[in-house]
Design goal:
Blueprint lengths: L1 H10 L4 H8 L3 H13 L3 E6 L2 E9 L1 H18 L8 H28 L2 E2 L4 E2 L2
Antiparallel strand pairs: 1-2, 3-4
Length: 126
Amino acid sequence: MRAVVEVLVEAGGLTVPEIGRRLDLPRQPVQRHVNDLVGCHALATRPNPAHRRSVLVEVTPSGRAAFGRIRAAERAELAGLAEECSDARLRSATAVLAALDRDVRAKVAERRALGSVDLERGGVAR
């Protein structure tokens, strides 16, 4: 649920399928999280001018405030970890992880296109 709110805080209004793509999650679990978050007034939906049946999901002011408190608490807790790592080293590590993520996703897409990835069987088709 936290990740759904974070995506919306950063990107603004998105549809459930768009949120799912950004989080690399199926639409159904994202929809359940959205429903729960709408139920506790952290998110709201509004009509989507681009698509009648796929509403836009947005963070409410109370959801934004709650997320701000959560993020501040996380940052305070993380501030005391890995103190030997400078900001430059952390930025470098982030860049390495982003590059690995990009390349692994590209490899999976390539294998899917060739029909050699079967996620139901745990990855590589036999």
